[in-house]
């Protein structure tokens, strides 16, 4: 493990180091271009080009960046179907619905919070380690 990164909780957070390095290299490149061409418009042109590039590739061409359909079209019908199917189970206030993992086929991953249903699944980026270790081995046991 690299010094100073012992407390990094997820590997994706290591991307910060790479992004910082790329930003420093980009700043050094802009410095070299400004020294070579001595034009005050170089930095503005690069900033404009970068903005257009980010807009085109990250917003216009990437269908995953923004939802291009309504909530009802994407999740609503699934959420309504799940709520209807689970209605008999939720009649008992002490009943909890269990699933091995979260699935968007039930609607949004935290839709159970909106529906006020007791479930064992859902989206949780900061799952407690003890809780995860308790349930992970049980997922391998076939249900009877």
Q: Give the beta-strand count.
A: 0
Question: H/E element string?
Answer: HHHHH
Described by the principal axes of the CA atoms, the overall outline is elongated
Q: What is the average of the pLDDT values?
A: 78
Give the number of helices: 5
Radius of gyration: 24 Å
Give the uncertain stretches in residue-range form. Answer: none
- Describe the largest sheet: none
What features would you describe in this structure?
The chain is mainly α. The chain is built from 5 helices and no strands. It is elongated. The model has no long low-confidence stretch (mean pLDDT 78).
Key features of this structure:
144 residues; mainly alpha; 5 helices
Lay out the secondary structure:
Layout: H1 15-37, H2 41-60, H3 71-86, H4 111-115, H5 129-139
Short description:
This protein has 144 residues and is an all-alpha fold.
């Amino acid at each position: 493990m690299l010094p100073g990164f012992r407390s990094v909780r997820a590997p994706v957070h290591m991307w910060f180091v790479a992004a910082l390095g790329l930003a420093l290299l980009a700043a050094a490149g802009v410095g070299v271009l400004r020294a070579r061409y001595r034009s005050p418009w170089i930095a503005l042109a690069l900033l404009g080009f970068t903005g257009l590039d980010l807009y085109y590739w990250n917003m216009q061409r990437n269908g995953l960046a923004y939802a291009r359909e309504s909530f009802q079209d994407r999740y609503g019908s699934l959420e309504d179907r799940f709520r209807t199917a689970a209605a008999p189970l939720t009649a008992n206030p002490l009943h909890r619905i269990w699933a091995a993992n979260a699935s968007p086929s039930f609607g949004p991953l935290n839709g159970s919070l909106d529906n006020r249903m007791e479930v064992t699944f859902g989206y949780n980026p900061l799952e407690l380690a003890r809780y995860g270790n308790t349930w992970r081995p049980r997922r391998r046991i076939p249900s009877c």
